Amino acid sequence: MCSYKERFTALAMSQGSLQTILKVRPELIEKDLNDFLNVMRNIKGKNICSFCYRMRIGVK
Fold first, then answer.
1. Are 16 and 10 in contact (CB under 8 A)?
2. What is the predicted pLDDT for the residue at 23?
């Protein structure tokens, strides 16, 4: 079973703008990305999480 930390991390890592910078210039975001991943790994507590986000879908 996937934890909320793993699901949130996967959601963040799947964002197009993050993927672009990781492909083009990963050194620009390496420290911040490592900080984020360390924070997510070290979160303690119950396996319950709620957060909101907005998704925009364009259809031609």
1. no
2. 94
